[in-house]
Amino acid sequence: MRTIKLLATGAAALFVATLAMPASSAELANAQLKDSSGKAVGDADLTQTPAGVLIKLQLKGMKPGEHAFHIHAVGKCEPPFTSAGGHFNPGHHKHGMMAGPGHAGDMPNLHVPQSGDLSVEVLNAAVTLDKGKPNSLFDADGSALVVHATADDYRSDPAGNAGDRIACGVIQESGAAKK
User: In the chain, is it the N or the C terminus that has fewer CB atoms within a 10 Å radius of its CB?
Assistant: First the structure.
């Protein structure tokens, strides 16, 4: 009798957990970052977590030094990457984590070593991969990851005085064809 009770309890818990999972959630996403010549310079895997979106970024052959790293508001990456629009900012905040809440797409600067290769994980607690939810990266026009030529000063509005956009990748649901 005890085995039947445990099985019934386990099945009920699994059923409730399945109901709690959002049907339209894109729990995994990715982006292939390219430079302005079209050369692949990085990959990013994005995972929805209870704390926000975890971005696992791998860059290769980048110029050493500090680079701003942002989520931009439009899922387009046509050189010089202005097609990606401004920073992802559905809350209409001023830019810069040192000046206030900042844009949802604001993230810490990347510190690329002399080798030009970087592997880093960044958690963005202000965004989600859940479609239809506020701050979803999968809104009507999508979104993109952008690496800038210089560091973000974390204050200047609207973009942190971060220089040119040197790499861009459209964020896509995992399994989608990379562009």
Answer: N
